[in-house]
């Protein structure tokens, strides 16, 4: 039980997880705006607005800065990690999603009208636009900067 109390009292961990969860919940509402219906798969899916990965790593970096200071090696590590995650989200993962769209269309065209083909379509929504990453980064930064200033959640 003591381990659970320590985890909950860890401001850096709480900030990162909270930023991730808030971003995932916000995806429900941005999805409603875009697609005109609730898609509860957005709660655990990747891609979409805002980027929950960017939100989590930015909350990690900025809460490290607030709790440990900018001279701490963990802050440096978390900033580099955030840069890699955000670059990957707009680069490699986004390109993979675009490739999946093209491949799904090719497969649909090749096998249209052939009932024996039942392969599952490739996942297309895996990366982010730069705006989605920036919005996730802003959300995470705000959580990382301000949440630790309220003190530990568990005494």
* Alpha-beta classification: mainly alpha
User: Uncertain regions: pLDDT < 50 for 5+ in a row?
Assistant: none
Shape: elongated
* Average pLDDT level: 80
- What does the main sheet amount to? none
Number of helices: 6
How many β-strand stretches?
0
Task: Report the portion of residues in β strands.
Answer: under 5%
Total domain units:
2
This entry's quaternary arrangement is single chain
Distance between the termini: 14 Å
Helix residue percentage: 55-70%
Q: Tell me the radius of gyration.
A: 19 Å
Give the ordered list of helices and strands. HHHHHH
Structure report:
- There is one protein chain.
- By secondary structure, the protein is mainly alpha-helical.
- The protein folds into 2 domains: 100 residues, no CATH class; 35 residues, no CATH class.
- It is 68% helix and 0% strand.
- The chain has 6 helices and no strands.
- α2 runs antiparallel to α3 and α3 runs parallel beside α6.
- 34% of the residues are buried.
- The model has no long low-confidence stretch (mean pLDDT 80).
